């Protein structure tokens, strides 16, 4: 592990790993500092839907081969409401664009494999990482491994350490502004080695709560049900989960459900969150370290990738062309796209979930949202173009 590098990347999730690979491809040294073990990082089950822009960037980074072989191109999805199914024709409505179903775990695995092959230093088990002297020309990062205290000198620090990371916390409170909305429910997710209800995703609105039928492959299904925010995984047996999922799906879809033992089950809280700006001196935030969206719009991972698209271009311009215009514009550029995805994720979440305290007015507004969507090509086009991902620029 070198004592000095160009970019110290804190966090070995998709954002940090993709940045490391893009910088390596541009001949720029970097080091990834990851708190957890690789097995732990790869044991997480998270996002499942990749926007076209994400697919394109992963190919550009040289990690698209397995995704192209195993990923499932989806041309549309269904919205279930009052027992009906509204098909959203992504390809037809969003100018031929589609999404690819390929799990974040697989994206992360592909990135790790490519970085190992490239010999990019990745430190797992990096404890007590502390970015320091961020507003000077000589920032550095201290951390601890089993070999003892370490110090990494660098030109820049990329804060890719997720919502619970340390990089955002390293910004003085009077230099950062937080925007947040916490939803009064969570998503209970279940993974099972069974064929899915159908080959396209189903987003279901129901008086009992939201449900989502997704997949990772034709023999690996991923399901979610909205659950009370205080619930624990141990409160939900597989049987209770499947009973609730079936109760929230239209009969035709429910009849297709094949119940299998859960191989993963977890509850994710839902929030909308943005930290502004995404830069402090020589620290640049990217991905969940800077923003969180409710997973309804399948934007979290894709936003992390678009941040890295902007940040990698800016860092390459700095080191290769001695140009800092992109670096100086990074926060504003990234936030412009982040807020559009925050809006879409909030809107789709507000429409599809059961809000107990909304009273009659909130439920009537949800009904009107769906009726307008079902009757308007313009409304469906707006939904489709946001779902496939707005242009990076
Ligand atoms: P990540 O959180 O993935 O990675 C950050 C990395 O930094 C982690 O490996 C962490 O161990 C490490 N780290 C943290 N603190 C550190 C420290 N102090 N020092 C060193 N390393 C540190 N998005 C969707 O689109 N669809 C979904 O269904 C979906 N489900 C999700 C479920 C859960 C439980 C969570 C938490 C997120 C989910 N997301 C989903 C969003 C998710 O996919 C994120 O958007 C994505 O992981 C963002 O990637 P990163 O920004 O790299 O952050
Ligand atoms: C998933 O497959 O995990 C998934 C798909 C679509 C979403 C959220 C999660 O909106």
UniProtKB/TrEMBL annotation:
SUPFAM superfamilies: FAD-linked reductases, C-terminal domain (SSF54373), FAD/NAD(P)-binding domain (SSF51905)
Taxonomy, superkingdom: Bacteria
Uppermost EC category: oxidoreductase
Matches recorded under Pfam families: FAD_binding_3
Enzyme Commission number, as recorded: 1.14.13.2
UniProt KW keywords: FAD, Flavoprotein, Monooxygenase, Oxidoreductase
GO molecular function: 4-hydroxybenzoate 3-monooxygenase activity; FAD binding
Domain FAD-binding: 4-345
One GO BP: benzoate catabolic process
NCBIfam families associated with the record: pbenz_hydroxyl (TIGR02360), PRK08243.1 (NF006091)
Name by which UniProt lists this protein: 4-hydroxybenzoate 3-monooxygenase
Gene name linked to the record: pobA
């Amino acid at each position: 592990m070198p004592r000095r590098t160009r970019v110290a990347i804190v966090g070995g999730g998709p954002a940090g790993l993709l940045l490391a690979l893009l910088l390596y491809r541009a001949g720029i040294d970097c080091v990834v500092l990851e708190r957890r073990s690789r097995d732990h990082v790869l044991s997480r089950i998270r996002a499942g839907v990749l926007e076209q822009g994400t697919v394109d960037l992963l190919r550009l980074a040289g990690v698209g081969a397995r995704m192209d072989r195993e990923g499932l191109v989806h041309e549309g999805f269904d919205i279930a409401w009052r027992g009906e199914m509204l098909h959203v024709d992504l390809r037809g409505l969003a100018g031929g664009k589609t999404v690819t179903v390929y799990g974040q775990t697989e994206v992360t695995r592909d990135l790790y494999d490519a970085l190992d092959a490239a010999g990019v230093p990745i430190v797992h088990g990096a404890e007590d990482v502390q970015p320091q002297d961020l507003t000077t020309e000589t920032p550095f990062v201290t951390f601890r491994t089993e070999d003892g205290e370490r110090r990494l000198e660098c030109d820049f620090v990329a804060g890719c350490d997720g919502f619970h990371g340390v990089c955002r916390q390293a910004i003085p409170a009077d230099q950062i502004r937080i925007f947040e909305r916490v939803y009064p429910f969570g998503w209970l997710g279940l993974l099972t080695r069974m064929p899915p209800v159908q080959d396209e995703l189903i987003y279901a609105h129901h008086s009992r709560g939201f449900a989502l039928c997704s997949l990772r492959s034709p023999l690996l299904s991923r399901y979610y049900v909205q659950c009370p925010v205080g619930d624990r995984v141990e409160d939900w047996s597989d049987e209770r989960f499947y009973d609730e999922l079936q109760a929230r799906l239209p009969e035709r879809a429910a009849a297709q459900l094949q119940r299998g033992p859960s191989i993963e089950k977890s509850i994710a809280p839902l929030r909308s969150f943005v930290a502004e700006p995404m830069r402090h001196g020589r620290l640049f935030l990217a991905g969940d370290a800077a923003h969180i969206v409710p997973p309804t719009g399948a934007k979290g991972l894709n936003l992390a990738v678009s941040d890295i698209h902007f940040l990698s271009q800016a860092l390459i311009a700095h080191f290769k062309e001695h140009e800092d215009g992109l670096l100086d514009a990074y926060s504003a550029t990234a936030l412009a796209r982040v807020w559009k995805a925050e809006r879409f994720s909030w809107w789709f979440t507000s429409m599809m979930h059961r809000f107990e305290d909304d009273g009659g007015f909130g439920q009537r507004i949800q009904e009107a949202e769906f009726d307008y969507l079902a009757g308007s090509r313009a409304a469906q086009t707006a939904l489709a173009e946001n779902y496939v991902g707005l242009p990076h620029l």
